[in-house]
Recover the amino acids of this structure.
C-alpha cells in the first residue's frame, strides 16, 4: 500500500503531534462528534438552534414544549441510532479486516450484513410480533444470520490460511446476494401484507429508522458488548497480521481469535442492521482513512474507528434526511455513492500487493 | 546437563506421507546445528515439531524434560522462537511494530508493552543491527533486511533456542555472510541455534553440528566435518553420477569463514 505508506511516512502526518498523534486525533474526533450532534439536533423541519439545545441541557429551560418533544422523541433517537450504527459497522469492518488479513473486508461486502437482513426478515415476516421491547427476536435472528453468513464466507474464501481478494469478494458477493434476495422471497409469505414489505424495503436501502428509546437501549447493550469484546482482541489482530502460522508460534490460539472475531463482528453487524439495514462501505472507508493517519496498529485504530465511524454516519444521515427535505434519501444509498468509487479505487490500488 | 529440546522416538506424517520416522535427537543449550537435506525431506517439519505447532504422531518432543504437548503455546514461545522463511504482512506495519510482536507471549490479556518490553525489543533490534530501520515499513525492506528483522522478532521472545528456516534463501553472498556473522554473535550470547541450510559452504566454522536428513535413511548426526563428506552427500542428495566430480570439487573448497 505504497500510497498509504507514503502519507504515513511522510512528514505531513508523521511529524504532526509525533508519538501522541493518536491521542490528539481521539480528542479532535470527540470534539467534532459533540459539535456534530448539536448541529444535527438543530437541523430539520423545525429549527432548534444548537445554542438552545446546550442551554436546555445546562439549565433545563430555553426550549418550547414542541421543540422539546421533537428533540427527545424524533431527533435525538435518530442521532443516537446513527452514532451507534456508524460506530458498530466501522469497528466490525476493522475486526473483519484484521481477521481476513485483508483491508477490503467490510460487513456489507463479505455478506454479514446480508445475513443479518435475511435473519431479521425471517423475524419480521414469519414470526408473530411477540418480541419483547421492540425487536429482540428480530435482533437475535439478525445476529444468527450475520454469524452464519460470515462463517460461510470465511470458510469459502480461505485458501491455505489466507483469504485472497478474489476469493473473498466472490464468496461475499454470492452469499450476500443469495441472502438479500431470499428476503424478497420471504416477502411473498408475508402475513400482514404491505407493512412488513415497507420495513424490508427500507432496510435493503439502508434507512435509519425512527427508533424508540427501548430499541436503542437493546442495540446500545449489544454494541457495548461488542466493543468491550473487541478490546482484548485488537493486539492479537496485530500479531495475526503476520500470518496464522507465525501467530501460532507466538503462542496465540488462532482458532479462539477466529471464533471471537466472528461472534463479536456479528453482534456489531446485527445491532447495526437492526437499526439501519444494509449500509454499505462504511466499515471499509473509516478504518482505511484512519490507517492512513495512524498506521495499521489495531490497538490505536479501535477507539478512533468507533468515534470516526459514529461521526461519519451522523454527518451522512443528517445530509440524507435534510438535503432534499421533506423527502429523504436512504443513507445507505448515500454511503454507496461515496463508498463504491472509493472501494474500486482501493481495489485497483491494492490488487498487486494483496492478490499476489 | 538437561537437554533443552529432545526428540524421543518421534514420527510424523502428513496424511499417508511419512516425513519423519523414529527420530531421536537432542539440542543442548549452547549448540549451533545446521539441518541439511534435499528439498521436501522434512527440515521445516522438524523445526515445527520443535515449536509444538506440529504434534508428533508417535513419540514426544520435550522442552527441558517437559513434553511440549503438556505446555501452553505461550510458555513454549517464551523459550523457543521460530523464524519462518516467508512472511507476508497485509498492512504497512513499521519494523518496530513488527518486532514488538515478539513480546506477544509475555503480554497480559489487556496489556500493552511495558517499559521493559520496549527495552527487550530495542536490544533485539540493536543486536541484529535493525534499530536504524525501526521507522521503515516492513513490506518495503530488502531480503537481507527482512531476514534480520525477522530474527529480531525471534530475539524479542528472549528465547533459549532460535529456529531458523532457510535463513539464507534469496540472499546475496554479502547478506549471507552478514547473517553468518549475526548467527555467530547470537551463539556467543548463549542462544542455541538450529537452522535448516541449503548452502553447504556456509556451514563449517559456524555450525558445529550437522543433522543430515535423507529421504530413505534415518537422520545422521555428527560434527560438520564428519557430515559434510562428499560420499555421504552424494547419497543423501541423490546426486546423479555424472555430477559427482562437481560435488566433490565444491566440498573441497575452504570454508568461507
Amino acid at each position: 500500500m505504497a500510497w498509504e505508506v507514503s502519507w504515513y511516512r511522510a512528514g505531513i502526518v508523521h511529524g504532526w503531534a509525533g508519538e501522541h498523534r493518536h491521542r490528539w486525533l481521539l480528542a479532535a474526533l470527540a470534539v467534532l462528534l459533540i459539535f456534530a450532534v448539536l448541529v444535527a439536533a438543530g437541523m430539520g423541519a423545525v429549527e432548534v438552534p444548537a445554542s438552545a439545545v446546550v442551554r436546555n441541557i445546562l439549565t433545563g429551560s430555553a426550549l418550547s414544549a414542541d421543540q422539546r418533544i421533537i428533540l427527545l422523541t424524533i431527533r435525538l433517537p435518530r442521532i443516537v441510532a446513527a452514532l451507534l450504527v456508524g460506530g458498530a459497522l466501522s469497528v466490525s469492518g476493522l475486526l473483519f479486516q484484521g481477521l481476513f488479513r485483508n483491508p477490503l473486508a467490510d460487513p456489507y461486502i463479505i455478506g454479514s450484513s446480508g445475513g443479518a437482513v435475511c435473519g431479521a426478515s425471517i423475524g419480521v415476516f414469519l414470526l408473530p410480533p411477540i418480541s419483547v421491547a421492540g425487536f429482540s427476536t428480530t435482533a437475535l435472528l439478525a445476529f444468527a444470520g450475520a454469524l452464519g453468513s460470515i462463517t460461510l464466507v470465511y470458510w469459502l474464501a480461505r485458501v491455505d490460511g489466507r483469504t485472497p481478494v478474489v476469493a473473498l469478494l466472490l464468496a461475499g458477493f454470492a452469499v450476500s446476494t443469495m441472502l438479500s434476495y431470499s428476503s424478497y422471497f420471504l416477502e411473498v409469505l408475508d402475513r400482514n401484507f404491505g407493512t412488513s414489505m415497507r420495513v424490508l424495503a427500507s432496510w435493503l436501502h439502508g434507512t435509519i429508522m425512527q427508533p424508540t428509546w427501548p430499541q436503542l437501549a437493546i442495540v446500545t447493550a449489544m454494541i457495548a458488548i461488542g466493543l468491550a469484546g473487541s478490546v482484548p482482541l485488537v493486539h492479537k489482530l496485530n500479531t495475526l497480521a503476520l500470518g496464522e502460522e507465525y501467530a501460532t508460534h507466538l503462542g496465540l490460539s488462532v482458532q479462539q481469535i477466529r471464533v471471537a472475531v466472528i461472534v463479536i463482528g456479528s453482534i456489531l453487524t446485527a445491532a447495526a442492521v437492526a437499526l439501519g439495514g444494509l449500509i454499505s462501505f462504511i466499515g471499509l472507508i473509516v478504518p482505511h482513512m484512519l490507517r492512513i493517519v495512524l498506521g495499521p496498529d489495531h490497538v490505536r485504530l479501535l477507539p478512533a474507528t468507533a468515534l470516526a465511524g459514529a461521526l461519519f454516519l451522523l454527518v451522512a444521515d443528517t445530509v440524507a434526511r435534510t438535503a432534499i427535505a421533506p423527502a429523504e434519501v436512504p443513507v445507505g444509498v448515500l454511503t454507496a455513492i461515496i463508498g463504491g468509487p472509493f472501494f474500486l479505487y482501493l481495489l485497483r490500488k491494492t490488487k498487486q500487493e494483496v492478490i499476489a | 546437563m538437561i537437554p533443552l529440546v529432545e526428540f524421543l522416538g518421534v514420527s510424523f506424517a502428513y496424511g499417508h506421507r511419512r516425513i519423519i520416522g523414529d527420530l531421536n535427537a537432542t539440542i543442548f543449550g549452547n549448540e549451533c546445528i545446521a539441518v541439511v537435506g534435499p528439498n521436501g525431506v522434512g527440515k521445516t517439519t522438524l523445526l515445527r515439531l520443535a515449536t509444538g505447532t506440529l504434534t508428533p504422531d508417535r513419540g514426544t518432543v520435550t522442552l527441558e524434560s517437559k513434553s511440549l504437548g503438556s505446555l501452553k503455546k505461550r510458555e513454549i514461545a517464551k523459550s523457543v522462537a521460530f523464524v519462518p522463511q516467508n512472511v507476508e504482512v497485509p498492512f504497512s506495519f513499521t519494523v518496530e511494530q513488527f518486532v514488538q510482536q515478539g513480546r506477544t507471549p509475555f503480554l497480559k490479556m489487556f496489556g500493552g508493552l511495558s517499559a521493559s518490553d520496549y527495552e527487550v525489543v530495542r536490544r533485539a533490534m540493536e543486536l541484529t543491527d535493525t534499530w536504524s530501520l525501526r521507522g521503515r515499513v516492513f513490506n518495503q525492506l530488502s531480503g537481507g533486511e527482512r531476514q534480520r528483522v525477522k530474527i529480531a522478532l525471534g530475539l524479542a521472545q528472549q528465547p533459549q533456542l532460535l529456529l531458523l528456516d532457510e535463513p539464507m534463501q534469496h540472499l546475496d553472498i554479502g547478506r549471507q555472510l552478514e547473517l553468518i556473522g549475526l548467527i555467530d554473535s547470537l551463539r556467543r550470547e548463549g542462544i542455541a541455534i538450529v537452522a535448516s541450510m541449503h548452502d553447504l559452504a556456509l556451514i563449517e566454522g559456524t555450525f558445529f553440528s550437522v543433522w543430515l536428513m535423507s529421504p530413505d535413511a534415518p537422520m545422521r548426526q555428527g560434527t560438520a566435518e564428519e557430515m559434510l563428506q562428499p560420499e555421504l552427500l552424494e547419497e543423501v542428495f541423490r546426486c546423479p553420477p555424472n555430477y559427482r566430480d562437481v560435488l566433490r570439487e565444491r566440498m573441497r573448497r575452504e570454508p568461507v569463514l
Q: What stands out?
A: Strands of chain B lie at 5-14, 17-27, 32-36, 58-63, 66-67, 80-83, 161-164, 192-196, 209-214, 217-223. The mean pLDDT of chain B is 87. The interface with chain A takes residues 51, 53, 72-78, 81-82, 84, 87-94, 97-98, 101-102, 104-105, 107, 109-110, 112, 135, 137, 139-140, 157 of chain B (CB under 8 Å).
